[in-house]
Request: fold
Amino acid sequence: MIEQIDVFDCDGVLVDSSHRYKNLSNGSIDIDYWIKNNTPEKVAKDTLLPHAALYRESLRDRLRYTIIATARQCAMHDLTFFRDRLGYPQKLIFRKEGDHRKDWLLKAMGLRRLLNLKQFHHAPVTVWEDNPVTIENLKRLFPTWQFNHVKSNQGA
Reply:
């Protein structure tokens, strides 16, 4: 029986991929730059952040259901990185090619679909996220969840 659901964002929470990240002058993510720098060689240079230890602890606990909810498009080398460096989650929510929804909406739709399943109705949900816009929007949709704003220098 699942007693707790843990949801972790990837970039800026579990993984430092800032060497592959850049903002546009308006503050939004330069998606073209991100995609161009999503190569196996550059992903291999990503490093783990301190919350990766908490993530791994969640994975080891059989009473917890551990999710990575990321706005990334995941290529095979991303999945390999997760498997080899982090440990693969029970569920991975990520952006499919051609999906241009806002990050928070992508995550909300994926989480709602999963957590509406009967086996998850009773379990409290804790989220670790570095994007304040995502946190505010998810809080509005899921007011009973616990949110942890992870301060990140991702993209700084």
Observations:
- Residues 4-17+47-149 form a domain with the Rossmann fold fold (CATH 3.40.50.1000).
- Residues 27 and 57 are 34 Å apart (CA to CA).
- The chain has a mean pLDDT of 91.
